[in-house]
Design brief:
Blueprint lengths: L5 H11 L5 E2 H11 L4 H5 L9 H15 L3 E5 L2 E4 L1 H9 L6 H4 L3 H10 L27 H26 L2 H14 L8 E3 L10 E4 L7 E7 L9 H13 L4 E6 L5 H9 L3 E5 L1 H10 L17 H4 L5
Parallel strand pairs: 6-7, 7-8
Antiparallel strand pairs: 1-3, 2-3, 4-5, 5-6
Helix pairs in contact: 1-2, 1-4, 2-4, 7-8, 8-12, 10-11
C-alpha cells in the first residue's frame, strides 16, 4: 500500500506514544511494520531527496498533534502523549485529523499564525499538497501554495524553537539572547558578556556597542511559560537598574509576552527600552540563524524576458 497522508497517520502515531517516551525513529519503524510497507515504500523519498516520504509524514503528524497539545517533545527526537492526547485517542476510535485538532484553541492559534497576510485563504493547502483544498475556495496559484507552505513551515519551526528554549536551562536562554544580539550586529565578536545571577542587579547581560565599551546595551532575559505575562512593575525595575548603572539603553526579552501597560511604560521612558516577546524573539532567531540552520534551498526560475527581447536597432 502507498504511504498514507500525515492526517491518516495521526492516530496510529499517537497510539504508539500513549504510555512511554518513544524515539521518533522508533515510531517510524513501527508504523512501517504496522502498515506492512514494502522496502520500496519505506525507502521512497520526497522529490527533494532530503528524507523519506514516511519520515516526513510521521514528522508532520507529530508536529500537528504537538500544536494541539496531544503530544509533547520531552527531549530531542523523543515524544510522549499528553493527558489530552490520551483522551482524544479514546474519544476518536477511527481517526484523528486536522478537524479533530481544530477543536483546541492552541491548534487554531497555530493555524492562524500560519496564515500568510494579504493572500487568499491558503491554509487549506497546508504544509504539503496532501491537504485537500475545500471545494468552495478558489484554487491557489503555485506561487501561493509555495508561500503558504513556507509560512507554515516557518511557523512550526518558530513554535518548536520557543518550546526548546523554554525547556532548556535558564542560563542557556540568557546566552541565546547574547548570541542573538551579536548576530544582529550589536558589538563585535566576543563583546557580549553574561552576568551571574548573584551580581546582575536586574541585568542578565551586557553588549558593548563599540570596542572601548563607551556605549553599552544592558540585557534582561525572562524565560517564562506562555501566559506568565511581564507586567509594568518588572519593566520599571529594569529601568531602575539602568539608572544605577548610568545606562540609557536596555533590551528586555521574554519567552512569554508583555502587558499593555508595560509596553506603554517602555514607550514613554526617556531611556531606549526595547521589549521583545516570544513571538518576536523566534522571528529574530530564525532571521539571524541563531539556533537554526538552513536545510533546503529552492531556486525557482522564470523566463528572462530581456534575453528574448530583440536589441534596439
Amino acid at each position: 500500500m502507498p504511504v498514507p497522508d500525515y492526517q491518516t497517520l495521526m492516530r496510529p502515531v499517537l497510539g504508539l506514544v500513549l504510555d512511554n517516551e518513544t524515539k521518533a525513529l522508533e515510531v517510524i519503524e513501527k508504523i512501517a511494520t504496522q502498515l506492512k510497507l514494502t522496502d520500496e515504500e519505506r525507502e521512497e523519498r520526497l522529490p527533494s531527496g532530503q528524507t523519506t516520504v514516511l519520515s516526513s509524514r510521521v514528522h508532520w503528524a507529530i508536529t500537528y498533534m504537538a500544536q494541539a497539545d496531544l503530544v509533547k517533545r520531552v527531549r530531542r527526537g523523543v515524544v510522549i502523549a499528553t493527558d489530552r492526547g490520551r483522551q482524544v485517542f479514546r474519544d476518536n476510535p477511527e481517526h484523528i485529523n486536522n478537524t479533530v485538532l481544530s477543536q483546541f484553541e492552541e491548534f487554531r492559534a497555530f493555524k492562524e499564525r500560519s496564515k500568510a497576510s494579504k493572500r487568499p485563504k491558503a491554509e487549506a493547502v497546508g504544509v504539503v499538497t496532501e491537504l485537500a483544498a475545500e471545494s468552495d475556495e478558489a484554487e491557489p496559484t503555485p506561487e501561493e501554495r509555495i508561500d503558504s507552505a513556507a509560512e507554515e513551515l516557518s511557523t512550526a519551526l518558530r513554535d518548536e524553537l520557543l518550546t526548546r528554549i523554554i525547556s532548556a536551562e535558564p542560563t542557556f536562554f540568557e546566552h541565546v539572547i547574547i548570541d542573538l544580539m551579536l548576530a544582529m550586529g550589536y558589538g563585535g565578536s566576543g563583546s557580549g558578556k553574561h552576568l551571574g545571577k548573584t551580581a546582575d542587579g536586574g541585568v542578565d547581560g551586557i553588549i558593548n556597542e563599540d570596542p572601548l565599551g563607551l556605549d553599552i546595551v544592558f540585557l534582561q532575559a525572562k524565560r517564562y511559560a506562555e501566559g506568565n505575562v511581564i507586567g509594568v512593575s518588572q519593566i520599571r525595575e529594569f529601568a531602575g537598574s539602568l539608572d544605577e548603572k548610568g545606562a540609557v539603553k536596555g533590551v528586555f526579552v521574554t519567552t512569554s509576552s508583555f502587558a499593555g501597560p508595560a509596553r506603554a511604560y517602555a514607550e514613554r521612558s526617556p531611556k531606549r527600552l526595547i521589549l521583545i516577546d516570544g513571538q518576536e524573539l523566534t522571528r529574530l532567531l530564525t532571521r539571524y540563524s541563531v539556533g537554526v540552520r538552513s536545510f533546503r534551498v529552492i531556486d525557482l526560475k522564470r523566463i528572462d524576458e530581456d534575453y528574448f527581447t530583440p536589441a534596439d536597432g
